[in-house]
């Protein structure tokens, strides 16, 4: 079983690296690799064991199901944005009201989800819960093509690396480390080349 999980992690790593590389350039195929990454990461998180006992990383399970849904929404949404930007890299400004909503969701959601996870078998409820909320918000911002998603992803990925490192899931930790690098590059590329598109 352990060998199978390692192979699944390897597949997730390859798909994840491809997904994040494509995201830098807003290539539409990124969403399909995002789905593949989420499916494999879902398997890794849901089959996690600690001290020989089944100990799913519940927040990562929920997150990856959500990311599959967001990827489908992104495919649909970005087709419209590509048309409006003339096929160029598109960035939608984040309105103040939406920013305040995002901050409120994080402020309330992170401690609440962490508390809920502390009542389950999740081995890292605070890291897992906080990364879940940040990733939920960042993924939604990505689907809407808001550049503000990148700082949230960076913090979330640092926390996710810590979660997988505590469970010795090193290939997953490597994948999320690469995500941090591509988030920095992606932010700079979107900032430099993005065509502003109003919603």
Relevant terms:
single chain, two-stranded antiparallel ribbon, two-stranded parallel ribbon, 199 residues
Low-confidence stretches: none
Number of strands: 4
The class by helix and strand makeup works out as: mainly alpha
Strand order of the largest sheet: 1-2
**What percent of residues are in strands?**
under 5%
List SSEs in N-to-C order: HHEEHEHHHHE
What's this, in brief?
This protein has helices spanning 2-24, 30-46, 58-84, 96-118, 125-143, 149-166, 170-193, and strands at 49-50, 53-54, 90-91, 195-196. By secondary structure, it is mainly alpha-helical.
Tell me what the structure shows.
With 199 residues, the protein is mainly alpha-helical. It has one domain. Helices cover 76% and strands 4% of the residues. It has helices spanning 2-24, 30-46, 58-84, 96-118, 125-143, 149-166, 170-193, and strands spanning 49-50, 53-54, 90-91, 195-196. The strands form two sheets. It has a two-stranded antiparallel sheet with strand order 1-2. A two-stranded parallel ribbon has the order 3-4. α4 packs antiparallel against α5, α5 runs antiparallel to α6 (149-166) and α6 (149-166) packs antiparallel against α7. The protein is globular. The model has no long low-confidence stretch (mean pLDDT 91).
């Amino acid at each position: 079983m352990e060998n199978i999980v390692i192979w699944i992690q390897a597949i997730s790593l390859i798909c994840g690296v491809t997904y994040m590389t494509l995201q830098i350039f807003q290539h539409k195929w990124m969403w399909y690799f995002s789905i593949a990454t989420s499916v494999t990461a879902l398997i890794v998180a849901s089959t996690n064991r600690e001290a020989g006992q089944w100990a799913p990383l519940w927040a990562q399970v929920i997150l990856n199901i959500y990311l599959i849904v967001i990827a489908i929404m992104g495919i649909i949404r970005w087709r419209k944005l590509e048309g409006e930007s003339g096929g160029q890299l598109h960035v939608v400004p984040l309105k103040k009201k939406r920013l305040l909503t995002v901050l409120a969701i994080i402020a309330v959601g992170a401690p609440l989800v962490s508390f809920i996870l502390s009542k389950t078998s999740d081995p890292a409820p605070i890291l897992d819960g906080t990364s879940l909320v940040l990733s939920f918000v960042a993924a939604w911002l990505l689907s809407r093509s808001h550049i503000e998603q990148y700082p949230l992803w960076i913090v979330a990925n640092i926390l996710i690396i810590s979660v997988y490192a505590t469970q010795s899931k090193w290939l997953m930790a490597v994948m999320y480390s690469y995500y941090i690098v591509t988030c920095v590059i992606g932010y700079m590329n979107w900032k430099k080349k993005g065509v502003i598109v109003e919603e």
